[in-house]
């Protein structure tokens, strides 16, 4: 029986890498009554997979992992048991039963939402009206948004605008913020840092890789022409 779990990873645990996070959840499941499924063979391990690993230093309130169970579970009880053994900064916020032939979350991701908060004093001192004009001048009215994209094998200038589905610059409680919806997954994948770097270049400000914080807020799959959260896509109403 396939299940999908949603969780948050915030605060100091944003510096925990993906492999350590996976080991943490494996140990957490062992401390609950959840009858999680194991692989067969000489070295069996729990059947679980994460949707889209976070970069170190990135927070999230919208992470997902898939796991399998041998028998039906009480969702509220399972969430309570897991949260009782979570460390500070990690919290399970949902468990969803999946249809029998549901695809793995990692294979269906198409979009991710992010909020960027700036600590950079130069950015923070930009007046509110100028910041608001970025929605038109930097994004809506731009023919392209070009940036140098580096990979292990090459470097090339790419136009990232087609991969930015939503862009909003706004001010809240004197904080300069960005909301981004970006192509994410195996077909197209845009790192939010590239958008921020392009914005620095547009503003003619020296790029400061430590001048902002990234928080992922949701992950989506695409169905027809609509985007559904991973908590909605291929989920079953009953166990």
What characteristic shape results from the CA principal axes?
elongated
* CATH topology value of the largest domain: Alpha-Beta Plaits
The CATH homologous superfamily of the largest domain is called Pseudouridine synthase I, catalytic domain, N-terminal subdomain
Major sheet characteristics? 9 strands, mixed
Low-pLDDT sequence parts: none
Cα end-to-end separation? 8 Å
Portion in helices: 10-25%
Q: What would the average pLDDT be, to the nearest integer?
A: 94
> How many structural units, i.e. domains?
2
Number of strands: 11
CATH class of the largest domain: Alpha Beta
Radius of gyration: 20 Å
CATH structural architecture of the largest domain: 2-Layer Sandwich
Number of helices: 6
**What oligomeric assembly is this protein in?**
single chain
String of helices and strands: EHEEHEHEHHEEEEHEE
Structural class: alpha+beta
């Amino acid at each position: 029986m396939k299940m999908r779990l949603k969780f948050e990873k915030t605060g100091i645990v944003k510096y925990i890498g993906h492999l350590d996070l996976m080991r943490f959840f494996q140990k957490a499941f062992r401390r609950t009554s959840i009858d999680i499924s194991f692989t067969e063979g000489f070295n069996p391990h729990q059947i679980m997979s994460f949707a889209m690993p976070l970069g170190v230093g990135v927070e999230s309130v919208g992470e997902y992992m898939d796991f399998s169970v041998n028998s039906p579970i009480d969702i509220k009880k399972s969430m309570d048991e897991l949260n009782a053994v979570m460390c500070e900064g990690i919290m399970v916020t949902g468990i969803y039963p999946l249809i029998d032939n549901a695809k793995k979350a990692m294979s269906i991701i198409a979009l991710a939402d992010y909020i960027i908060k700036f600590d950079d004093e130069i950015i923070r001192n930009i007046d509110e009206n100028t910041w608001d004009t970025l929605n038109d001048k930097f994004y809506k009215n731009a023919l392209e948004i070009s940036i140098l994209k580096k990979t292990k094998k090459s470097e090339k200038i790419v136009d990232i605008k087609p991969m930015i589905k939503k862009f909003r610059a706004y001010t809240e409680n004197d904080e300069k913020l960005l909301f981004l919806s970006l192509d994410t997954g195996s077909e197209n994948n845009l790192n939010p840092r590239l958008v921020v770097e392009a914005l620095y270049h547009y503003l003619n400000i020296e790029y400061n890789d430590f001048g902002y914080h990234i928080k992922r807020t949701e992950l989506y799959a695409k169905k027809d022409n609509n985007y559904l959260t991973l908590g909605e896509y291929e989920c079953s109403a009953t166990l």
